[in-house]
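Table S2 (continued). Query chain:
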Amino acid sequence: MNSTEVVVEIVWETDEAFKVETGSGEDWIPKSQVYNLYEVEPVAIGDTVTFEIPEWLALDLGLI
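Corresponding output:
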């Protein structure tokens, strides 16, 4: 499976997902789809982070 890195700003966080600002709006990224999650946690609201996510998800969210 192909993956890609995306840079997003954390808007909100739940146990299951991050709500992020993508530049064109806000979307949810499920934590289960973040490959490098343990390299970037903990995060705080307002942080800008780089996530590695599946390419299909990045395309679906308009991030690439």
